[in-house]
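Researcher: Quick sanity check before group meeting.
Model: Go ahead. Protein one:
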Amino acid sequence: MSIADKENIPLKTNRSLHQNLLESRSSTLALCAANMQFPTPPSPPAPALECEVQKATINLNPAEPMSKPKKAKGKMRPSQTRNGRNLCAHRWLKQIKTNGTTDEFGVYYMSLAENQRTAYDNEVTDLVAANKWDKTIGQGMMY
């Protein structure tokens, strides 16, 4: 038999399998139309983790984005930006907590009331306008 002859031979189909699939689909659709509730299939078990490195890199909750492990923040070092947060940081380091960390300052700053933060912002505006932002800013008033 040549290749050309094989192309012209109709394929044999297994009608019983095909009919079963159609009936299965039809009965599922009929049950859905009748508002039948199907139990949700159990979720697959989590893969076994072989080492600590894999535990740190596998994200088992897809709703949360992957992030690098957090490392402890070091000593608070305000940036050169002239804003209320940095003015507060300079004074906090000078007057309250000399070796304070970034995390500790973050907690302190977030505990301030809105009017206290606004007071720092207003003072920065005055200091910059008068060109008095210098090394002595840490000696001012804490709000």
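Researcher: Fine. The other one?
Model: Protein two, sequence then structure:
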Amino acid sequence: MSTGELLQIEPLELQFPFELKKQISCSLQLTNKSDNYVAFKVKTTNPKKYCVRPNTGVVIPHSSCEVVVTMQAQKESPPDMQCKDKFLLQSVVASPGLIGKDVTAEMFNKESENRVDECKLRVVYVPPRSPPSPVHEGLEEGYSPRASVSDNGTVNQDSDSNMMSKRFVDHNESTPEFQALVSRLTEEKQSAIRLNHKLERDLEILRRQSSRSKGAPVMLLIIVAVLIGILTGYLLKRL
């Protein structure tokens, strides 16, 4: 922070998270702690590369003003990510009631009787900010499950996570819909088992009749056995 007599400037470095083909902005905070109106003007050594809003203005007594500096999108990375661009912020005591559009270049002329304060600012390129870690869906707000790693490298969830899972399962099992589903599936399973036993008895009867009658076709028994197997598998798959 600069602690000049007219304006306090923060920060003294314009830090841009450099990325190719992307406009990047940073801001300056100008604070006037005096009882005077203070006019300011921002200059740069590379005006085609940067856009400053506002580049001139007035900070009224005991107030602050924000200046946004935007670097245009760059097509190439600078060597070693170093930047030689610089900014100069000039400030001068202004007449009471002066507004931004009334600020002129003559006010900052050093040959005039006005005392002009100057502060040099340098440009620094920094690595781009990392995106925030995504929040997994399904986790309750404010809850962060913890995990521990055992000696063999196995990751174990903590007791809080296990208790939450257990409460969730117990809650589902206590609902009427869950109980009705269990009852229906149990009844269908018993029906399939009874049907399978009946088919097995019928097949045994056919085998006995076939043994008494040597002329009975063997192919019929094979077809019946195949149908029993297909039907049993279909019923058990539904369960």
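Researcher: One line on it for the slide.
Model: The first helix runs from residue 159 to 173.
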